[in-house]
């Protein structure tokens, strides 16, 4: 049986997804502040867009940077959806099941909740800089912004994280 050009592309994309999907889900989970369902949706949307732009991805000078930028763009697009503006986040989420004992260390849960409070691009800057240890230039490339913006976004993001984590430790409500 002869393998056509489209079949080869599909197989290449399939191999890529098999190799990278788990890492994408981990990154998306951090970018969504621990929301596993939104992370799965984000990865699905990113992979769909990546499939459409597969020739551009393959020609990219920095495929990892291309992939990170695609993920962040999908995250930002997700937060622009009208229903996101209608719903308001609250400090207490009664409709979310609390993790069972032993599922997640308490500190990790607090960090995820604090991350969730950050705006998407600020959260992405913090995640890429401090969870993935990208340098400022790589983070700027992933976010499609200047290095100065990365510096200011990470500084503000860290300030907000400290404040949120202090509130969770002291139990103060602002």
TrEMBL record:
The UniProt keywords, alphabetically, are: DNA-binding, Sigma factor, Transcription, Transcription regulation
Q: What domain of life does the UniProt record list for this protein's source?
A: Bacteria
Domain RNA polymerase sigma-70 region: from-to ranges = 25-84
Where in this chain does the entry annotate a coiled-coil region?
none
Could you tell me which Gene3D superfamilies the record lists for this protein?
Answer: 1.10.1740.10, Winged helix-like DNA-binding domain superfamily/Winged helix DNA-binding domain
- The name under which this protein is listed is RNA polymerase sigma-70 factor (Sigma-E family)
Q: Which residues form the RNA polymerase sigma factor 70 region 4 type domain?
A: 110-161
- Write down the CDD domains for this protein, in alphabetical order: Sigma70_r4
Family indicated by similarity: Belongs to the sigma-70 factor family. ECF subfamily.
Q: Which species expresses this protein natively?
A: Catenuloplanes nepalensis
Recorded hits in NCBIfam families, A to Z, give: SigE-fam_strep, sigma70-ECF
